[in-house]
Amino acid sequence: xxxQDEADILDTNLSVEIAGVGFRNPVIGASxxxxxxxxFSELIDLNRLGGFCTKGLSARPLAGHPPARxxxxxxxxxxxxxxxNVGARAFIEEKLPLIRRYDTRVIANVFGYxxxxxxxxxxxLNDGEGISLYELNISCPxxxxxxxxxxxxxxxxxxxxxxxxxLSERPLIVKLSPNVTNIAEIAKAIVAAGADALSxxxxxxxxxxxxxxxxxxxSYGTGGLSGPAIHPIAVRMVYEVAQVVSAPLIGxxxxxxxxxxxxxxxxxxxxxxxxxxxxxxxxxxxKVIDGLSDYCKKRGISRIGxxxxxxxx
Amino acid sequence: MIETIGTVxxxxxxxxxxxxxxxxxxxxxxxxxxxxxxxxxRNAYEPLLRRALAVYRADDSRRLSFLYQILGRGTAALACxxxxxxxxxxxxxxxxxxxxxxxxxxxxxxxxxxxxxxxVLMLCEELIDAGVQTEVFFGAASENAAIGCGLDDxxxxxxxxxxxxxxxxxxxxxxxxxxFSRRLAAIDGSRSRVYxxxxxxxxxxxxxxxxxxxxxxxVSLEAPMGCGFGxxxxxxxxxxxxxxxxxxxxxxVCVDGPVFAADEIRWDVAGMSH
Lengths: 313, 274
Fold this sequence. Notes:
The complex is a heterodimer of chains A (313) and B (274). With 313 residues, chain A is an alpha/beta fold. Chain A is 30% helix and 19% strand.
């Protein structure tokens, strides 16, 4: 890419569009790592954020798994929270009115234990004012029904996507599981079934064992691995999926810096989600936005969208 | 709650395995007893997650110290810090110990086990300042551990102080719950308020003893934390569903605690002993 004189570039346009919805920049807080957004209001300017995905919402509140729920591993962490959440109704009534005070895109992450359960969640959320998109969670590895069970099968994932698409009053992102043999095939099936966009990847199933007790360190046994350790796996998967679908992609996995985010964008992502890094660097989303802007200015890129899939050009 | 950078002023070994980290901050930070910080060496790759450490003492609002036992990768990384090094910090976090002013003729009984002492030194200072009659039960594995857990700072407060060590190298041999139980039996338990921080099994026993004697009991819990500000929902504890909490059966130690009424905790649910 030619490097222009810095003075030529006034300000890079970081805005992107996903399924007809405009985002002021491609930086989105990832589901499960950004609470209901409000937890960050003391720490960052939510009005600068591209958007955020809520914690996975279900039709009824979920208590989640007993502790221990998280364990740190090398370069990452395992979690098995069990989708603890306030429930879609309470989200609309108690959280959304507070979230609406901020000018950022809200993506509601949708979960269910069965197809009917997913539809019930969407029906409730359709009433919520201020939600821009849905993200269908068919990839949570920490529940025995729903989640990954659907995400592992192209046919089941396509079926659910089709039903959700019919019922949804908002554009539909489907969040893919990396715990599959061929993510590109599943991505194609989901897009063919009507998904407006894909986000990838969810966590990778892992396990940690306590060598003193001989037991798993998480109460659930296994957990989802996240953090910098999974970044190259996620970039590879975005690259693979970008070659077979034309729907916009949102890259997720181990982003801790603007450079990490750029790898996803160059691999084919329109936007990115930042997860685990929010825990140990609560300002990371702001740093990534600034870093993307600096990078584009230095390289003379006037619109960040030019970089999406640049590796294939 | 602010996100900031602290500069290491001192990081001294108290006894082998126990250190005290003193950080200087540019901002004045208002800390109440029982609150904690999430700390990690600046720009570290290891550990990934910050570690939750109770504020041990506030020399002033710009100089805070943290007493810790070197137990795992996180505290081992903190132990390597040298004066002038920088530390990423999010603080103050969590709810403080509630301290009522004197006049209630209440006796405060503080029960500390191991490095749980780090959470109660400021509490003792606040109780003294509030004019509350206070006694301290201080349990540790050994004399080395007791000194490492700040025993000399507790001695300096000149409160009634009962010491126990598991190996008998200092004070009464055995668990701290033995003299604590004797004491509650000897006084009117219902006029006492128990404050406790230590290993899960110890706090569970303290809660049972306090309950037997009709004493109110508060505990400060410890849990592995991902974030420290309520987002990851990783540090939960099972609670009795007396009041509908935001998350029903589980509460977050970081923002709903770390201080809880002992009778709110489901002591029978495993997973918190680590």
